[in-house]
Write a structure and sequence with these properties.
276 residues; alpha/beta; Rossmann fold; ten-stranded mixed β-sheet; two-stranded antiparallel sheet; 8 helices; globular
């Protein structure tokens, strides 16, 4: 029988039942980490953006930065085959190594695992759990939610998304693994006036991912829409805004970093931060 503890407890007794603080995984982008406080263990994070906005490159840089810090990272490539995903990640590695004197390509490759063999959410979870038992996984990246299946017939895509999010969130809670899920931003943002900055309601399958996710990061580049200046008259060439739209474990706000469109690479360079 579970013991019921009566109040009031003294401070010494209370400390015994308080969970240890969460370990935060750093993204490697100082401006983003200062705003969001990184990605905590057991965290279910969605990284979203319109096609071509750079969510793959941004997520790949985070994965490489985590691996460079000695964290065990498992990347599920559902959108690209293994060869294509490897080539794209290898380009990211070279860029990171060129830009960061502390980046070690060998270390990153030792701690970053890549697979394209699974699309069913239950298979993804089983592989993640098995790998976690063998070596201890810190974070998994899944590219991307649109390609995940559940293996059940006669379900709408909305119903499938609910199952996918629920199962992944449960695994994160059970194992302590952080999960980063890549997801496209809805096309409705294209029809909106103004600067077209994404909102939580612009997430695909909004209402499902929005509810289940602990963190939501949007990638927004003004030049994507040919906005050469922002509302303050500042030039936007080479600028990327990382919008932390939801964060159960820290602040929400925005961090500006550099982006090279020709290289499709995000730089760990602080510009301006606004958070609350």
């Amino acid at each position: 029988m579970n013991k019921i503890y009566e109040f009031p407890l003294n401070l010494k007794e209370v400390k015994k039942y308080v969970r240890n603080p969460r370990r935060n995984l750093k993204t490697g982008f100082e401006a983003v980490d200062q705003c969001s406080n990184g990605i905590p263990e057991s965290c279910f994070t969605a990284i979203s953006g319109r096609p071509g906005m750079g969510k793959w490159s941004f997520s790949a840089s985070i994965a490489c930065n985590m691996a460079n810090a000695g964290k065990e990272v498992l990347w599920f490539s559902l959108q690209h085959n293994l060869e294509t995903a490897y080539q794209k990640l290898n380009r990211q590695l070279k860029m990171i190594q060129n830009m960061n004197a502390h980046a070690d390509k060998k270390t990153i490759k030792e701690h970053l695992m890549l697979t394209d063999a699974y699309t069913n959410v239950h298979d993804i979870i089983n592989v993640a759990k098995t790998t976690h038992e063998l070596i201890g996984i810190d974070c998994i990246f899944i590219d991307c939610v649109e390609f995940i299946t559940v293996g059940e017939k006669n379900l709408s895509r909305t119903e499938e998304e609910r199952i996918i999010c629920r199962e992944l969130k449960s695994m994160a809670k059970e194992t302590g693994i952080s999960i980063v899920l890549l997801v496209s931003t809805s096309g409705q943002v294209e029809w909106r006036g103004g600067d077209k900055r994404p909102l939580l309601s612009d997430l695909r399958y909004s209402g499902i991912l929005e509810d289940f996710a602990d963190q939501v990061y949007f990638i927004y580049r003004p030049m994507y829409y040919d906005f050469i200046e922002d509302e303050e008259g500042r030039p936007t060439i080479g600028r990327a805004d990382i919008i932390i739209a939801k964060n159960r474990f820290g602040k929400v706000g925005e961090a500006e970093i550099r982006y090279d469109e020709d290289l499709d690479f995000f730089y760990n360079k602080r510009l301006k931060n606004e958070w609350k």
